[in-house]
């Protein structure tokens, strides 16, 4: 049996990033290193780099998000980036969307333990909750799927003129090029690669920003609206 890796002490910059919620960030890191590993939500090799590679890498995504908006974290998994984002941004209304029961159970426990009243956990896939959850200003995702597939799940959840923010790695530019046609069909009006976290993480966190126009989701979104309108007229 492999001996569990020890969670390192939080770097000094974490106190600055998480502010008054720093103790809660430490508690979350401890939960990931313990229950998160035991339940198979993260690998044991990730424990020594939980702070830099995971918590801080996700928390700096807040730099790209406007104040007071609604956010849906698609495929939230163990709560990355949703939980770190919630800790640094109490002004946001956040939904953690995750299809697997063992993960939503963990997320619910974390949300309740840390008192994150502005966070809701929803079990389901993006395509299953479309039309059941209110459209959001921002969709976030990390390590869920290639951009083309991720956009097909995330963009239809956006309200008009919303944006999807996907944390990506070195392949970000290539993924944007490969997904250009699909993004256009989904109603994307602008796609860019930005970096956040200067002075906090090294290397910087890479984010693909997909901005949509008046009809996010493209044909599928429009068809859904049309069907709903026809149904209302029949009543």
Automatic annotation (TrEMBL):
Q: Which organism is it from?
A: Streptomyces albidoflavus
InterPro entries from the xrefs? rRNA_ssu_MeTfrase_G, SAM-dependent_MTases_sf
Q: Which domain of life is it from?
A: Bacteria
The record lists the membrane-crossing segments as: none
Q: Which UniProt keywords apply?
A: Cytoplasm, Methyltransferase, rRNA processing, S-adenosyl-L-methionine, Transferase
The protein's name is Ribosomal RNA small subunit methyltransferase G
The EC number on file is: 2.1.1.-
Is Transferase there in the keyword field?
Answer: yes
* Amino-acid positions noted as binding S-adenosyl-L-methionine in the UniProt annotation, renumbered to this chain: 75, 80, 126-127, 142
Location of the protein in the cell: Cytoplasm
Sequence similarity:
Belongs to the methyltransferase superfamily. RNA methyltransferase RsmG family.
Gene Ontology molecular function: rRNA (guanine-N7-)-methyltransferase activity
Q: What does this protein do?
A: Specifically methylates the N7 position of a guanine in 16S rRNA.
Give the UniProt entry's GO cellular component terms. Answer: cytosol
